[in-house]
Amino acid sequence: MQFKKNMTKQTGRERAYEYLKNAILAQKFTPGQSLIEDSIAAELGLSRTPVREALRELSRDGLVETIPNRGAFVRTLSLQDLLDIFDIKILLEGLCARRAAVRSGKQTAAKLYKAIADMKEAAANRNRNAYLSADEAYHSAIYHGANSEMVHNIIQDLNAQWHRMRPGMIALETRMQTAVEEHTRIADAIYQENIELAEQEMRRHLTNLRDQIKSLLEDFITPMNGVQ
Amino acid sequence: MLMNNISRNLDSVNNTSLQDQAYQFIKSQILQRKIGPGKYYSDTDFASQLNMSRTPVKAALNLLEHEGLVQNDRRKGWKVLSITLEDIRQIFEIKIDIEAMLIKKAAQRLKHQNTQELLDILERMKTAAFKKDFSAWIRADVEFHHLLYTLGDNPRAYRIVQNLNEQWNRVWVGILAMEGRIQQSLLEHQGIAEAVLAGNGDLAEARIRDHLHLLQIEVEQVLNEVVFPVTANSV
């Protein structure tokens, strides 16, 4: 997880890191797929050392799993990973809602109500893609209102990790109606510039989403852990 | 052969000590705020001030760059890295929430075998504070938080904290702020440890919030107090 502002010169390790991370998050490399140092190094025109360092860093990020004598693989998210990610998201998105309420309540709320209108329409038509982009517009309005580049970068990083999980998408889809209500309550609190309530409602919204994903994972999907 | 070896060893000793001398000199210039952000410095400047060649100076600057105190721009030279008040506020806002979560969980998960380890670290912190040995203090401080945040059992959250720390605690502001409050910080760490050892998550959380809040105030104060002579005309 790198979120430094000034990357003046990019080293080989940084280049390999960026490349691999983007490829994993864009699903170009899929969970369970083996990551071979030699071929990655050849593709990037680097030696093996920076590639190995990048893989080590990605395994600290939770995106890659290294198995002794077998090498590196794209990691499948475990239920525990997901809960860890949401524990952080609940705190940090709560922080964003708090900041947005105090800094730009009315202005942010206007954008939120617009996104909610789009969400409602998409939910009524069961249009998944339209719903997801309205949801994204909603949350970016809050990040924008919070005006903290640092917290925004961290959240994006975390989102990139769980969005690649299909159960995450299914959970978002099945909760369209309920989520519209939750999003309205958050927007109202931000409009009223009620800092405590804005944080509390955001935390509740994400806790509900987390619980939904969790039960989906427990009910329907058995082999979540380890390498396929 | 033997003589050769000896003279080579002497040579490298001399080089290291020159490098060390340059390192100490530049670092103290930064910490005493004689040089600061907003201006570029060349290695030749330092070399002539120190009356040595550029090689040990460059090695010292590379070391300082690795520590996060300075940064090299190939065309312009070296500059002292700094951080803005707004950066500090954003960093601490995130740190406080995440560290509070981790310490609370650590208090709930503390095992018998961790108790002695925690007490040992506290002992090292005490000795370092007593001797005013800043680098020993920092080492023990890192161990303290490492033990508890590992127990906090959310590796991603701990990594976020580490990344945030890298951004502030090695720049001069962070060093000065931490160095200036070792005694007080010791008491705060003892309080946190006491709450963790008692298994009282809520108390541990409240105490770490207080600790980080006081630290933030200190950092902001250091940042506010400082007016660099160089900043006024060069930025």
Task: Describe the protein in words.
The complex is a heterodimer of chains A (about 230) and B (about 240). Chain A has about 230 residues and is mostly helical. Helix content of chain A is about 75%, strand content about 5%. Chain A is built from nine helices and three strands. In chain A, strands 1-3-2 form a three-stranded antiparallel beta sheet. The radius of gyration of chain A is 19 Å and the shape is elongated. Chain B has about 240 residues and is mainly alpha-helical. The interface of A and B includes residues 3, 85, 87 and 92 of A.
Computed CA radius of gyration of chain B, to the nearest angstrom: 21 Å
Pattern of helices and strands of chain B? HHHEEHHHHHHHH
Give the termini separation of chain A.
25 Å
Number of strands of chain A: 3
Low-confidence stretches of chain B: 1-11, 229-235
Number of helices of chain A: 9
Strand fraction of chain A: under 5%
Morphology of chain A? elongated
Q: Which chain pair has the greatest contact? A: A-B, 25 and 19 residues
Question: What are the key terms here?
Answer:
heterodimer; A: 228 residues; mainly alpha; 3 strands; elongated; disordered N terminus; disordered C terminus; B: 235 residues; two-stranded antiparallel sheet
What is the topology?
The complex is a heterodimer of chains A (228) and B (235).
Chain A: H1 12-25, E1 34-35, H2 37-44, H3 48-61, E2 64-67, E3 71-74, H4 79-124, H5 128-146, H6 149-163, H7 166-174, H8 176-191, H9 195-220
Antiparallel strand pairs in A: 1-3, 2-3
Chain B: H1 2-31, H2 43-50, H3 54-67, E1 70-73, E2 77-80, H4 85-109, H5 112-131, H6 134-151, H7 155-168, H8 172-179, H9 182-197, H10 201-225, H11 229-234
Antiparallel strand pairs in B: 1-2
Helix pairs in contact in B: 1-3, 2-3, 4-6, 4-7, 4-10, 5-6, 5-9, 8-10, 9-10
Quickly describe the structure.
The complex is a heterodimer of chains A (228) and B (235). With 228 residues, chain A is mainly alpha-helical.
